[in-house]
Specification:
15 helices; UPF0210 protein ACFQ3W_05500; alpha/beta; UPF0210
Length: about 450
């Protein structure tokens, strides 16, 4: 039972601290849509998505009105298309992406994820077709998001896939060069991808999931920041306890919304993802939390330790509030979506190398980072390889969502709008890694992967 005091606290968090439910994401299995004929397959997935999610947006809007909690996005994730469409007789999955986009627009969701492939140990024919389709698919659609998992702690890293994704990211940037290379903002490369992540661009509905499920992603950097302002100068034990208590309260809000959405839609409740995902709004920044913790800027010495504290205690507080915490839960550090991170980059406090170090202890990885459009595909592959290695060795999810902005160089700005914000073009290490990337093959899993 939620007490009167909790209701008052929640209202205050919503009104003054930018608390929101970042997304309600409906996961939908497309396994029963498999067919060899493209026209039949597309019709089946369109019918299933529009039937399953016909009330998703309205339910979200109704819950916003009833509870007074902003629900920023309503989204859909589907079975990785390289699996669902594996039986098609075709050399391109672009028509499938167009069908997903059409279905997303029909039901009114903001994004649909699952134009994805899982290639950590090797490629199927469907995987190769999907990956080669990504640049065009993201150029001709508005709401489709794509992901490719290139490694895992149990399988190692598929370096052939890493090499290919450097080329695919650059081609995606070129296909959307007239829009600030925004196609790359809808494409993420993973190591240890999770099957129940409600956040884009990496969401897909895993093959171990139910037929249909509701996952909710809650955010709240502003709430954590305000709570920490109350304990400025106190010791680390007090700092950690404050973060845990705040995360507990935020998770309770998400639990309430998730259970009610599940009930109204008649769809099982899956997980709460308690990820501190910032927005471009003032007061809704991870970087500002670091400043309240005592750092002059994000990127200053101590930033990685501060992020480790934040990430760990957010998870501890969330787990106490709900038995169904999942997804990526922790702290995200996207550059373009966080005005404090942008300012830190512009002031020279935050570099790509420092961001890479921070990914060792945060929820995901190098996220929404704009780099010069002249960056080579081998350099992009090298960046992916580094992040995948961090994920593989540390048995955690890491990812790269990097945007080589065609026609722009270091110091310039690219505008994406909305939740994606804007980003300064960051410098990239210019030393060559081509001979390393060209080796190909697979990096074997680390020794601690053998746990059976």
């Amino acid at each position: 039972m939620i007490s009167r005091m909790e209701v008052q606290e929640t209202n205050n968090m919503i009104r003054e601290m930018n608390l929101d439910v970042r997304t309600i994401t409906m996961g939908i299995s497309l396994m029963d849509c498999a067919h060899a004929d493209m026209k039949v397959f597309n019709q089946k997935i369109y019918d299933k998505i529009t039937r399953s999610a016909q009330n998703l947006v309205k339910t979200g809007e109704d819950l916003e009105k009833q509870f007074g909690v902003p629900i920023v996005n309503k989204r859909i994730s589907v079975t990785p298309i390289s699996i669902a469409a594996g039986g098609l007789n075709t050399d391109s999955y672009v028509p499938v992406a167009e069908t997903l986009d059409k279905a997303a627009k029909e039901v009114g969701v903001n994004f649909i994820g699952g134009f994805s492939a899982l290639v950590q140990k090797g490629f199927t024919t469907g995987d190769r077709i999907l990956i080669e389709s990504i640049p065009e698919a993201l150029a001709v659609t508005d709401r489709v998001c794509s992901s490719v998992n290139v490694g895992s702690s149990r399988s190692g890293i598929n370096m052939d896939a890493v090499k290919l994704m450097g080329d695919i990211i650059l081609r995606t940037a070129e296909h959307t060069a007239d829009r600030g290379s925004i196609g790359c903002a809808k494409l993420v490369v993973f190591c240890n991808a999770v099957e129940d992540n409600p956040f884009m661009a990496g969401a897909f509905h895993g093959v171990g999931e139910r037929e249909c499920v509701i996952n909710v992603g809650v955010s709240g950097p502003g709430v954590v920041k305000r709570a920490l302002e109350e304990v400025k100068g106190k010791d680390f034990e007090t700092l950690c306890e404050t973060i845990k208590r705040t995360a507990f309260k935020v998770t309770r809000v998400g639990q309430l919304v998730a259970q009610e959405a599940s009930k109204r839609l008649g769809v099982p409740f899956g997980i709460i993802d308690l990820s501190l995902a910032p927005t471009p709004e003032i007061g809704d920044s991870i970087a500002e939390i670091f400043q309240v913790m005592g750092l002059e800027e994000a990127g200053a010495p101590g930033t990685t330790a501060a992020l480790a504290i934040l990430n760990d205690n957010v998870k501890k507080g969330g787990v106490m509030a709900s038995s169904y915490v999942g997804g990526l839960s922790g702290a995200f550090i996207p550059v373009s979506e966080d005005h404090g991170m942008i300012e830190a980059v512009q002031r020279g406090a935050l570099t790509l190398e420092k961001l890479e170090a921070m990914t060792c202890v945060c929820s995901v990885g190098l996220d929404m980072i704009a780099i010069p459009g002249s960056t080579s595909k081998e350099t992009i592959s090298g960046i992916i390889a580094d992040e995948a290695a961090i994920g593989m060795v540390n048995n955690k999810t890491t990812a790269v969502r990097i945007i080589p902005v065609i026609g722009k160089e270091v110091g310039e700005i690219v505008e994406f709008g909305g939740l994606l914000g804007y980003a300064p073009i960051m410098p990239v290490n210019s030393f060559n890694c081509s001979a390393f990337i060209e080796r190909g093959g697979r990096i074997p899993a680390p020794i601690h992967s053998f746990k059976n």
